[in-house]
Amino acid sequence: MVGNVALDYCLLNRLKQAAVDTAVSELWEYCKTVEEETSVVGGRLFDERLIENNPFVITAHKPNYVLPVTYNSRPNAAPYTDMEGRLQNLEVKFQLSLKFQVASGVLGGDSLLFFAYTNQSYWQAYNGEFSSPFRETNHEPEVFLLLPQRWSLFGLRNRVIVLGLNHQSNGRPGLQSRSWNRLYASFVFERRNMVLSLRPWYRIPEESKTGATDSSGDDNPDILDYMGHGELRGIYKRGRNTYSLMLRNNLRRANRGGVELGWSFPIGERLKGYVQYFNGYGESLIDYDARVNRLGVGIALTDWL
User: pTM of the prediction?
Assistant: First the structure.
């Protein structure tokens, strides 16, 4: 259920549209029904609609978090010519993810057009011997169309379909450059406090490089061998605790994939503690073809739900 703010908003909005002889009790019953039917996904969408016209607000896209302590049992030094044996298992990982509504009613109804940007960084903060470098930073701008839905499949209610164009790059030159472009569709289903998101994607082809140092052309032609053609994400909200699971697999004989587990829990009114575990390929672009085994602990500023 959404909070009293959403209920008040519904009452005010219905009051503006109601006939002069409409009873207040009718408005109240309608909005209470809407509130009771609002799900965890619907609650987030409703809260975001409350502030969509506020020029001072940029909303969260993916979770925003800081993990001051992460331990990777398999640091990958292969892409770095000068860091063999110098990479530490301990590093800081953080993510900043924001979105901004560009337009509404693009395809009629409640359709919304967004621009989003996600930054995910890996910082060797405790590696003072090597000047504490940022080992990897991934930049992910995207534009997407959000289409609210109301159909069901096998007891799961489809709340949202998202159609988007995504670019991801690590912004590095030469042999350390990694990037790809994708078209994707996300199908978001829910049942009570559980959410399932299926996101298949299509990689936009690029021309092959003429040589290893060619600045144009495909930086990572085999990335689909490790990242596959989509991902499945599950989220379960229990009280103020949120549990998440992400699965990727290339579905090939030479099987590769990745799994990410997350748990956020309250440590105050606004902040949440956050524990994250990742195992597999594709945690970052520089490590897309290297197996990573990482456990991290920190703080979540915003969550999935």
Answer: 0.87
